[in-house]
Amino acid sequence: MPNQGCRKRLSVSNKTVVQTQYVTFSDDITLKSGARLGPVTVAYETYGQLNTEKSNAILILHAFTGDAHAAFYHEGAKDPGWWDAMIGPGKAFDTNKYFFICPNVLGSCKGTTGPMSVDPKTAKPYGLTFPVITIEDMVDVQKHLLDHLGIKKLLSCAGGSMGGMQAMTWALRYPEMLHSSIVIAACHRHTAQQIAFHEVGRQAVMADPDWKGGNYYGTTVPASGLSLARMIGHITYMSWMSMEQKFGRKLRDKDKLGYDLSKDFEVQSYLEYRGKSFVDRFDANSYLYLTKAMDYFDLAEGRKLGEVFQDVKADLLVISFTSDWLYPSSQSQEMVRALKANDVDVSYVEIKSDYGHDAFLVEFEDQTRVISNYLAKVQKERVLGRNL
Amino acid sequence: MPNQGCRKRLSVSNKTVVQTQYVTFSDDITLKSGARLGPVTVAYETYGQLNTEKSNAILILHAFTGDAHAAFYHEGAKDPGWWDAMIGPGKAFDTNKYFFICPNVLGSCKGTTGPMSVDPKTAKPYGLTFPVITIEDMVDVQKHLLDHLGIKKLLSCAGGSMGGMQAMTWALRYPEMLHSSIVIAACHRHTAQQIAFHEVGRQAVMADPDWKGGNYYGTTVPASGLSLARMIGHITYMSWMSMEQKFGRKLRDKDKLGYDLSKDFEVQSYLEYRGKSFVDRFDANSYLYLTKAMDYFDLAEGRKLGEVFQDVKADLLVISFTSDWLYPSSQSQEMVRALKANDVDVSYVEIKSDYGHDAFLVEFEDQTRVISNYLAKVQKERVLGRNL
Question: What is the pTM of this model?
């Protein structure tokens, strides 16, 4: 009765405590732009046990503002990692079966080298002297991490949103290094509208006088600009419907309209809250660099998607959500068609959800069913099958 | 051969010149909030001839940042009014047949009293001492204008977006005063997402240090905040598809990516251009007041839409556009269902378009066919029919 076992494990009151680990690569890495960057530190966490054949490793790839802490608890923490509902014993990403590595991406501010890191050449934070990075550069740094861990081939890599862009890039950039890739709520290139929403976010940050050309470290951070950028982003992460269900025209601590310019509606103060709390956990320059990396994301780069996908050797699982209007299903479907045309073994699931782009962080039940079955199939067909 | 006649008229090289007129109502008006405001000046234009029975008057209601100059040319101007393609001899709103009045709305900055107008009590611009206004208040001021012009009953009123909200409000607030109303790309209430987009626009304006609590008149205007607000708005006015068709990933004066934080893509500089040029033509405080008026827009206000529509006496034409995601067709359809349930004579047309919310300012051919036929029908059934 595996289900009962699973339930039991989920109900234990002892919290499993995990720690973020760090590794520093002292040699410079060459970025897609041609610029060189080094040393590069990578923050990462691991969950589960790597088997002796090192054939059960899965790379977990986080989204825009995520971090290495995907699951379980940090010492003394109230809340678990950002995808804890998906990673753990008996969960979609089953730590009883697989070994997971979740690295913080290059350019972020959560332990991996980024614009707020200290440049050893100047002993000051990089700020805008940090080179512009791409999704490919993030993946290259992850490759260094796998080399460091002695993992030659991944059972899978998986991520939503920007994590999905990395998962797709892995399949193209290191085709021999993975059996499968799980691409959730993502795309194969950023569209004009996606670039436009990022651009207004960046303009909000840079218009804040406290941004000071990116040299705000050790002084007041550009809180109002970064908060506004996050508010804009947050609207795009929710759907029309989820906003309507959650807020509609509900008033905020009021029984009638104020007839002034203050906040009347709950949705206004919710956005403000989300904006302000974001400032406490994220760096404004990382906001600029990571949005830019996504805007640069374009697998085909002027070629035909079909041509680009010729080199894909992994099996793919593509998941999209019906109400995601930021990375709409149509983009996933375009990708799936081009993969199928290249005889890539691709499964596509569109999950019905009202949660918009955020669905990949909310719709656990459907994702769990799809992903756990998929991983079992990949292991059976591509790992165990080959050993038979 | 009416079509040929029409073409001839459209091709004449002599531009018809029109002037904005002004009328000031010296008595205070009472606003929905209970506040009083006066004197109120209204800027308006008229086109065509009012017939002796005064039965051919149509009120043209502009959108958010529009003005009284809907058609023809101002003296020496290169460009015509904002809906010139729709208003004129032989056009959708045919100036050979009907008499049009287009007033600038209360709270705007285009001649009608608004926050940048001088408060006679202080001899200074109102700024934030201007009272918060509603769509209902705009309509009430328009009613004063019609009284002033001696028009007791409108053949129709018509507008897109915020103009459509006014057109809907006319049908409820002065049911005896109009035969029909044409509601384009609008809604019966602002949703959480619509409020949210307005909120981030307002926050962008108010975060600009040059806004100075609204007291910037005579000093530097909050250009960067207002520009950013417009950029955000502009994304919502276009569709995913129209942005993709117009810009896609086209680079701006570059043959490759810059790998820096500057603008690489055309869509970035286009948005910046739209933002900056908006600052030259619109007042930041009006931006706050008019977005607030729209956010307050809710015809039902806690009651059932069906109840509210019981008093409608006008015929209605509701038009929406397939790719309009800011005021989606579903909102128009909800309105149409409630109107039909109350036996209101309502026609609904969903026009196929890739232009998003902007479609009402772009899709002239389909709108012309629908509106010109509709107005002929209303005149025949409700005006001429009654005289027989």
Answer: 0.95
